[in-house]
Every structure is written in C-alpha cells, then in structure tokens.
Design a protein that fits this description.
Helices cover 31% and strands 19% of the residues. It has 407 residues and is of the alpha/beta class. The chain has a six-stranded mixed beta sheet, sandwiched between helices. The termini are far apart.
Length: 407
C-alpha cells in the first residue's frame, strides 16, 4: 500500500505508531547496597570482624573465604549451559546465600568497573571507574580504565582503600592469585591490592595455590581470577565451540578448588558481567563513525558498544541528548548525565556521585535494551570486531552468580 502526505499508513488506514521511547528511569537497576558486586567483600569481611565494615548483603560468616571471579560468566549464560558446566550447575541453588538468585554487577557491566566495585566495596559513582573508556576532565581526553591509557596517577583517580587493604590491616591473611601479568597494573593497584599478589600461569596452579593460601591463616581472604571465558566470548561469541570449551574448563577449575577447601572455609564463585552476541548487520551494529546524525555535536565517544558515554561540545549537550533519544530511544535507555545519576545507574538513587567522578560520566549515557550496539569502526576497530559484547543493564549482561561452597 502506498503512503500519503502524512506518512505510511496501516492496512486499516491509521498512521503507524511512533516507536515508544524507553524511560531511563525504568531501566533494571543494579541492586547497589543489597545485592551487587560492591556488596560482596564488605559482607565477607564484616563476617570476619574487620573493623568499620558493614554491608547490606547478609552472608553467613566464615573464617576463611576465597572469591573466585570468572570473567564473563553471567548468570543467564551459566543457567543455559548445564551440560558444559555440570559442577557449577549443581551450585545454582546456593547462589546469594541459598536463595538461588543472582547478584547484579553494576553499571556499566564491564570488567574495569566491576573489579573496582568488588575490590573497593563501592559503587561506580564513588570509586570513579564508571566505564571502559571515560573522559578525564583534567585533560579532555578519553582514558581507558582497563588498560590505563593514557597513564594517570592511579591513587588520584581512585583514592579509596580497597577491602583487601582493610582486611590485611586487621590481621586477616590476604592475597590475590592471578596471572603474573596483572601484578603491577594500575587497575590491580586501585582495585585489588592489599596483602600479597601471587602470580601463577595456569588455571590449575591458581586453584591449588589459592587453596594453600586459604589454609595459611586462621582468618583468610583469598581472591583468584580467570579471564578466558570472557576472552573467547569476545572473539568467537558465546554461541561458539571455543566459548563452550572454556566453560567446560573453568567448571573443572572450580571443582578442583572446591575439593581442596580447608576447614572453616567458604568459596564464592562469581563473575564481573555476562555477555551477548550482537549480529554483524547495520541494524544491529550502528556505526557511529559513519552516522552524521549521531556524531553531530559530539566531542568524544566513550564507553563501549552496549554502554556509551557521549561527551558533547560546549553548549550542545541538550541537542545531543535529543538526537540520541530520537534515533535510539526505542532500543536504548538514553539519559542525560544527571538523569542517569539520579535514576541510580551509578549508585543508589539519591546518593549522587563523588565530585571528582561527575564529569567522567558522559553528558549523555546510552545503555542498550535491545540486541544492538553503537560501534565505531574507524576509531575502535578491535572493539567493533568483537562478536560478544557487554556493558548494559539487560539480565544477560547484568546478572552474575554468587555460588557458594562450604567446608
């Protein structure tokens, strides 16, 4: 049927409805203060009687606690693959203190932000790593908070002590067991330092040494980490044989660690985010570098494909917000900076963010609700080529397990 002067019509003769713009206040918020990654270590160390630490998350106390963080292993991905993860699947009912429910990662659901939340016990609006790349207000340039490029003083960027440092100062035997390459990174320093870092190459070595360290103190706090579930998901997608092989491997690692727990110990298995495969077509991957409408008035594009920080040229923030909301508002939650803060994207609603963090957040923040990503093929070629992506607040990205094993 042909259109009319007023636009396309339905067979019944009425105009097609305008796409519904998503309300950013209706996004599924992280459960800061009660069931987010930022609440995990405060709950653990409160149970170990570390002074001055409280948590809205209630966990049964344990003298010796190990946290095993599997990068990229979201709750929904785990539940969808029982054959590849038989051991972890048996633990699903133990999640979140035996409720069988997941934790929330925080926003954005990305590694640098989540690891900072885990290590500091603070939401992104306080610790100040609110994205993959964000603007540094002191320089006006983007700062990659995972790779720490360009370099800036880590302890000015994130000044709060970690929970590991507070536990170590209170006499808890505290350590991190991870790949040697992470020993001296700025992200480790600001998020995961405290006690002793032990570098071990293989996953099996990490599990065995973590168990040894767990038994080394009357009160122990041990953190260990595995990255390649995330790595294979980015490269091949979470629907790939390579990703499923990694899930099988990490399932065996988790069982290996669980079988070596010393007395009076608890093991918590969690993740920093989930992941979703985004098709390689123009409707699913909107290329910012080729879209004049989205580029208009934008000085810097930060974040990542599923969670964008958009920094406007002076005086253009309102126009950029209007355009991004008009073009993308039916597929993404699009908010102005203060609107996103007040809604509770970066911390509990009403808590605000630290002053030093405020301008690191985009003038416009866009989080994907549909299976879509804003890529940048010229300025972010490697990220734009990834199959699996994450960052937003959808359940597949936001929900993470908190599986528990006790000796």
């Amino acid at each position: 049927m042909s259109g009319s002067a007023t636009g396309p019509v339905t067979p019944a003769g009425s105009a097609w409805p305008e796409p519904e713009v998503l309300d950013p206040r209706a996004a599924p918020l992280p459960r800061y203060g009660s069931a987010s990654l930022a609440d995990l270590l405060p709950a653990v160390t409160a149970g170990q009687e570390v002074p001055g630490i409280t948590s809205g998350l209630a966990l049964a106390p344990a003298d010796r606690v190990c946290v095993f963080l599997i990068d990229g292993l979201g709750w929904e991905l785990l539940r969808a693959h029982p054959a590849e993860a038989p051991f972890l699947t048996t633990l699903l009912s133990s999640s979140l203190n035996g409720t069988g429910a997941p934790l929330t990662a925080g926003f954005p659901s990305t590694t640098a932000t989540s690891l900072a939340s885990v290590g500091t016990g603070l939401p992104p609006g306080a610790h100040g790593l609110p994205g993959y790349t964000v603007a540094d207000p002191a320089t006006g340039h983007l700062m990659n908070q995972l790779r720490w490029q360009p370099w800036t003083d880590p302890h000015i960027w994130q000044p709060y002590p970690t929970v590991f440092q507070r536990a170590d100062a209170a006499g808890v035997h505290t350590c991190q067991v991870s790949a040697p390459t992470f020993a001296e990174t700025p992200l480790t320093k600001v998020a995961l330092s405290g006690g002793t870092f032990h570098g071990r190459l293989s996953g099996e070595e990490r599990m065995d040494f973590a168990a040894e360290q767990l038994a080394a103190g009357d009160r122990s706090l041990v953190y260990t980490y595995y990255s390649e579930v995330d790595g294979k998901g980015h490269r091949f997608g979470v629907d790939s044989r390579e990703w499923r092989d990694q899930l099988r491997y990490v399932d065996r690692l988790a069982q290996r660690l669980a079988e070596q727990l010393p007395p009076r110990a608890a093991l918590y298995i969690t993740a920093d985010h989930g992941m979703i495969d985004i098709p390689f077509d123009p409707e699913s991957r909107i290329d910012f570098d080729e879209d004049w409408e989205l580029r208009a008035g934008v000085a810097l594009l930060g974040g990542e494909g599923r969670a964008r920080h958009v920094y406007a040229v002076p005086g253009a923030a309102g126009d950029v917000l209007a355009v991004w909301r008009e073009v993308l508002g039916d597929r993404m939650w699009v908010a102005g900076r203060d609107e996103a803060i007040e809604a509770g994207w970066f911390g509990r609603p009403g808590d605000g963010v630290d002053e030093r963090v405020h301008r690191r957040i985009g003038d416009v923040v866009a989080a994907a609700a549909a299976d879509v990503a804003i890529v940048a093929s010229e300025t972010e070629p490697k990220e734009s080529a990834m199959v699996g992506l994450h960052g937003s607040m959808t359940p597949v990205e936001q929900l993470v397990p908190l599986l528990e094993v006790r000796s």
